Amino acid sequence: MGHHIAVEAEQYVFKPETKRKLFILIGVGLVLFVLGLIMAMNSGHAGHSEGHASSEISTSLVASAEASAEPAAGEEHHGSPTWLKRLYTSLWMNNIYFVGLGIIGLFFVCIQYAAQAGWSSGMQRVAMAMGRWIPIAGILTLVLWFLVKGDLFHWTHHDVYEGETADKILTNKAPYFFWPLHAGSFPLFYVIRMVLFFGMWYMFFLAIKKRMVAEDLDSNTQHWYKSRSISAWFLVFFAVSSSVAAWDWVMSIDAHWFSTMFGWYVFASWWVTGLAFLAFAVASLKNAGYLKVVNANHLHDLGKFCFAFSIFWTYIWFSQFMLIYYANIPEETVYFIERMRTSPYSWIFYTNLLLNFVLPFLLLMTRDAKRQISMLRVVTPIIMIGHWFDFYNMITPGVMKYEGAIGFLEIGLFMVFLGAFLLVVLNGLTKLPLIGKNHPMLQESLHHHI
Amino acid sequence: MDANKNFVVGIFDNEDVLLEGVEKVRGNGVKIHEVYSPFPVHGLDEALGYKRSRLPMAAFLFGMTGTGLALTMQIWMLGYDWPMIIGGKNFASLPPFIPVTFELTVLLAALGMVATFMVVSDMKPYKWPRQFDLRSTDDKHVMAIDLALNAGKSIDDIKRILKEAGASEANDKNFE
After folding, report:
1. Where are the domains of chain A?
2. Is the interface score ipTM higher than 0.85?
3. Burial A330-366 (b: 16+ CB within 10 A, else e)
């Protein structure tokens, strides 16, 4: 259709009220966090024995599985007190969760360029703003890793590679962490990967952003072609790096265990969380009077994305679960026994499926649900909270064993991270015009109709 | 006059004219039987005042039938009729049933949707579709108006309204 629709320039204004609300969120989060930390420090070992009592069956099952898989398993690695381990675990899981939100912002933009998609060009800048978390996430991950490695990643301890009781499985896996140095020294390969991934992700982010700025100044379509080629290279790099990152940062906590689905599993979780956040952000901006170029058709597409990738996540979840369930090999099933039969992971394990599959599946099934701002603003937080639980259950049981808990500490820390993430994203939104007025597919987006 | 026998057929050359034409024709109180076009025209359903299809509802019901059928079948077969020990699992354990349940859900939803669509759109195997104008499969949009449903208007009136609405031709078409 021939007619051209004029687009108003839009600029997001980060109002002081919004900023104040975010600082209140961070403040309340900090208070809860400190409260939870003090409670955790004082409760000491009371929770420990209680946890044991409630999970006698799994204790014996886990013990028998670990006895065969982990000949050198000794309690000497678990040096820090329970509250400190709990703090480290919570820091790491919240960080990994928000790493995902940041990188998925860039991933979304690149997918749209590579697919030559027109419908999303009006909301591209919102996804791009999510990517502003990448450099912060990179620094946090690197710093936190050195802080938490002793308690979270027991393969970092040199004694598991030494002497008569050396751990065979970990010794075999050692080059993956320590190459070119010898096992038990500094994990050079691992740290290089971490730096490389964040460095490359940030570089791709800057490259795409540079093109966006240039496109706003002159209406040369060359910028779009260049962005498409940058995106294609990013997607190739991300395909590999997201999987390896999942093994490195999440799966290596349970270093004796492995799953070939794990890279996809973490990616699926990140991706659907990022889509849910994007849908929530777009719906909220629309509610606040921004993004006039976005209408029910675009929301419908975002809703379909959330719906479809909730199912995709479940598909990956089930593929991983069923193979392990059916094969029934102790060193594999131990992962699920820890999570299904142990308090408090058991209720999270099932809640995870309810929040991330059953609710999005039923609530977003109809066309009307996907097109309404109000419905999207209900379902997308459910998905985001659901995947927070998902990451909790990926990371915590491997570290905390029977002492895991969800309390003020975890919730408070999540609020602090969320507040900081939102500050960065909303501040990022003010840096560029909200609509790329020279995007060659903006007109296509305005005529989008489904 | 019998319904579905005598028609006036308006030919439109492009979809922008067609969309405006549909609104003008309906605005003049003429009831449109159907519009045929060589490719999907966005906004045509709304312009024609069609209600949303209830096909998704049919798909959901057929899908649920598939889910129920698959679960009943497997639980009955492996739990009661011929219990077998497989990998030390319970006779009727849910996880191994899920792939089959998923497949049957999709299969029944898909086949049920196709069947429903065929029945609702009157596309039975023995029924040959009517061609109002063969050019609707090439480069023209074809608007069919049933004279029996527009008894208050003469053929000339309808043709005039069609021309005013932007049709390049307005022809008679009779199925006897």
Report:
1. 55-73+89-446
2. no
3. eebbbbbbbbbbbbbbbebbeebbebbbebbeebbee
